[in-house]
Amino acid sequence: METLLAILHVSYLVIVLVILFGLTIFVHELGHFLVALRCGMVIDTFSIGFGPAIWKRRRNGITYKIGWIPIGGYVALPQLDPAAMELIQGKDKAGGKPEDKPGLPWISPWKKILVSLAGASFNVLFGVLLAWVVYVSPGVIPEETSAVLGMVKPASGAWEAGLRPGDEILAVNGSPVKTWNDFTIECHLVSGRDHKVMLTVRSDEEVKDIEVATAENSSEIQVIDGIDRAHVCQVGGLLDGSPAEDAGLLQRDIVRQFNGTRVLDSEHLVELVSECGEATTTIVVERDGKLLEMPITPKHDGKYDRAMIGIMFGEIYVLPWMQYKKPWDQIKHDAKSIFRILRALTSRREGEARRAAGALGGPPAIIFMLWNAISISLLNAIGFIRFLNINLAILNLLPIPVLDGGHIVFALWEGLTRRRVHPRVINILVNVFAVLIIGVILIISVRDFIRLPKWMRLGEASESVIEQKDE
After folding, report:
1. pTM for the complete prediction?
2. What is the pLDDT of residue 192?
3. Is the separation of the CB atoms in 114 and 39 below 8 Å?
4. 327-350 mean pLDDT
5. Does the pLDDT of residue 104 top 80, yes or no?
6. Average pLDDT value over all residues in the chain
7. Which residue, 248, 226, 86, is CA-closest to 162?
8. Which of 85-89, 114-118, 194-198 has the highest mean pLDDT?
9. What is the pLDDT of residue 178?
10. What is the share, in percent, of the chain residues with pLDDT greater than 90?
11. How many domains does the chain have?
């Protein structure tokens, strides 16, 4: 029975992964397809995937196919890309060289621009739809709006530099950070040759700068050793007749303050309750986005020989694509993430471009992260697909031949100069850059497979773990 359940679980993960990943590609190509139809353009092929066809049908002069290489898709438009990418699209299209296709109607460059923009636009619209799904779904992970230290190991470099639990990181080397994920990314990218960063920290209402050394962790990311983030302290359950139940706490409440002190995580709350003893105090919880303050009186527990309030904790570990609840905040974060990486890739700072390139992932990394997200929950998977759609939309608009942004540049040239770029020039540029991009993807993918064992060992740390513990 356990084997059957395991097989069913893996089958479910595979089916959901294929559907969600396929939807991202389908939505992009559907945008090109529908706008091209509306603009009266000739369409040779609508394909999900590249290379020879696993399945194909021809209807109304258009070939619909699924290719063997599942890393993208295309709509073959001879008026936009005259000779197309024969090297990767295969030869299923009804075409050849542009001069072999007489009678193709002229299409204005502005229509070409609309068609080129359509794929990315559909990805953004799909991302917005998914953001609303996350927003209206119950049980969404609460927003993370600051980078706060929950733990600093005594005698560590961070402790000696002056960092303490409860400190809030405001900036890294002058770049503002809002979440722990922002903080981690900046530490990795800007640590420099000396592997040090300057942190702007708010500690006990005092703002100060602290220089701290970074070190490479097992994931090859530069981090500050000896520290950990503050975790959201959620009520996972209540003991019958407990002080927490009497006070009016409910399951899924998030404990924000106890006895006037900000709660950093469940262990911190245990310490605060123990220090308070059986004196009546106040507890502040977040419920449905609102803060509620209520009196509470801990009781001494003989078994543990300390004061307790009788709750079970549910620790929440916020994933990068689930940090915000409002749809606009979700989309803005997704866009800022990819723009930060692009800025780092073109940076002249010491080592920043190299570290940014090292953090890039190919199709194996995307599939692994999506698999992990699905394993956690379908809602997490939807959040990741939203993140992926916004990122792919922006990347596709880069002014590189073979990408949509390259076709926009060709069309703009035609519109501004009233001279078309020669089809042979487009063909050469598109195919050369297609080979270069495929080569980069293959190199990154090989690196992903080398890193895969490390990711699998670290996978549990990235899940939204509900750890039941008595308090």
Report:
1. 0.79
2. 73
3. yes
4. 88
5. no
6. 84
7. 226
8. 114-118
9. 87
10. 32
11. 3
> 444 is written with which tokens?
């990154």
- CA 56 to mean position of chain CA atoms: 33
pLDDT of residue 89: 53
In a domain, 242, yes or no: yes
| pLDDT value at residue 142 | 62
- pLDDT tens digits, one per residue of 251-264: 888 899 999 988 88
**236 and 225 share one domain:** no
Which residue is it, tokens 């803005």? 332
Strands 147-152 and 227-229, by their bridges, are antiparallel
Average pLDDT (335-342) is 91
We report the CATH number of the domain holding residue 304 as 2.30.42.10
Q: Minimal CA–CA distance to 144: which of 321, 296, 7, 278? A: 321
Return the pLDDT at 118.
95
Distance CA 174, CA 211 (A): 12
Q: Is 146 exposed, middle or buried (0-12, 13-18, 19+ CB in 10 A)?
A: middle
Q: Where in 7-61 does DSSP place strands (E)?
A: 45-59
Residues 89 and 168 grouped into a single domain: no
**Spatial separation of the C-alpha atoms in residues 166 and 261, rounded to whole Å:** 10
Q: What single-letter amino acid sits at 325?
A: K
Q: How far apart are CA 169 and CA 180, in angstroms?
A: 9
Q: How high is the pLDDT of residue 316?
A: 63
Q: Which residues contact 162 (CB under 8 A, 6 or more apart)?
A: 201, 203, 208, 210
End-to-end CA distance of the chain: 36
CB 33 within 8 A of CB 75: yes
What is the model's pLDDT at position 103? 60
From residue 273, how far is each of 79, 261, 279, 301, 302 by CA, in Å? Answer: 71, 11, 10, 12, 15
DSSP string of 422-442, one letter each residue: PHHHHHHHHHHHHHHHHHHHH
Q: Which residue range is the domain that position 161 belongs to?
A: 145-231
Same domain, 169 and 278: no
Is residue 143 within 8 Å of 324, Cβ to Cβ? yes
Query: What does residue 236 show for φ and ψ, rounded to 5 degrees?
Result: -90, -25
